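Researcher: Next entry in the queue.
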Amino acid sequence: MESKLKPKLVFVHGIGGPRDPDEQLMEWKRALAGGARAAKLASDISALTMDWLADCSFAYYGDLFADDEPQSVGGPDDLDDEEAAIVLGLLAEFLEEEAARPENQGDRALARVRAQLSPDGQPQGVVGAGRHLWAVATAVVAVPGVAHAARWATASDVLRTWSQPARYLRRKDKDAQKTTLDERIRARVLACLDPARPTVVVGHSLGSVVAFETLASYEGPVPLLVTIGSPIATSGLVWPRLRPRPPATPDCVDRWLDFWDGDDLIVPRRKLANRVQPNERGVKPTPRQFESRMWWAHGATTYLGRAEVAEPVMRMLSAVSAATDASAGTNSPAGTDASAGTAAPAAGS
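Model: Structure for this entry, 349 residues:
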């Protein structure tokens, strides 16, 4: 009797300072288990937390920002002009979308900040962008509704939110081996993948960009890609800098679900499904929107704890696990539910 080769579940985190990847893995799994309970899939929770259902990994790359920790961004000279110009572009689009919210119509403070970017509300050139960015960030935290909802109390808080995506998208910061920062980050994700096993990938925030670009050249099976709180569709800076171009669903992906909370201030309102080209099998991202009415809706565990997110992840893992059980002629561990008879969702469904 052949031994069972379990599927994999890989989490890819977003921005933030140093963290313990083992602790984060447990925290994300607990959140997903909470979502499974909310989805009435309680019988699968032990299988998830005990790693019977899948081998779980947390693709950690936060330490690669160690030379330029986001917490160290404390003044106008802490970012070079190119980085600052990227952050200004990201911030400009964020402010544009905030200004379009019905509750922000007529907000004079927000209008003044947008005018400070330039007369048309867009960032100006690269030269002197660092000091211009600091001035804009300082003005942003004076807009009470926006600053409070996004958890920004100081200009440094604003820059911490956007500096890591800017550094990733610069495609620079080479190490001794001439490997750029973004390449080193994707290598961390690639190290968690196993081409011999089907893998469900969950990418949050910047991690959704990293996961997307990593899978673009990956050849192993990915029955489900889940993006949560994703900025991929951010027109001004992220979208035109994505690689490869034109952006298309990776060929290895059978199904892509893109979850976004209408109260998540970091996520652009442009749906990925309207922008990403299908892969050779016609798979495109399927948008799934909900409204949490939460003060801070962007957290990864907040998304994972929702039934809407947890259910397709758990059902796919159960379906793949059941299929590998059948092919290997093994039985699931006692007390788990492999969801026998649950077929994998059709591509693009």
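Model: Confidence is low (pLDDT under 50) at residues 68-72, 331-349.
Researcher: Noted, moving on.
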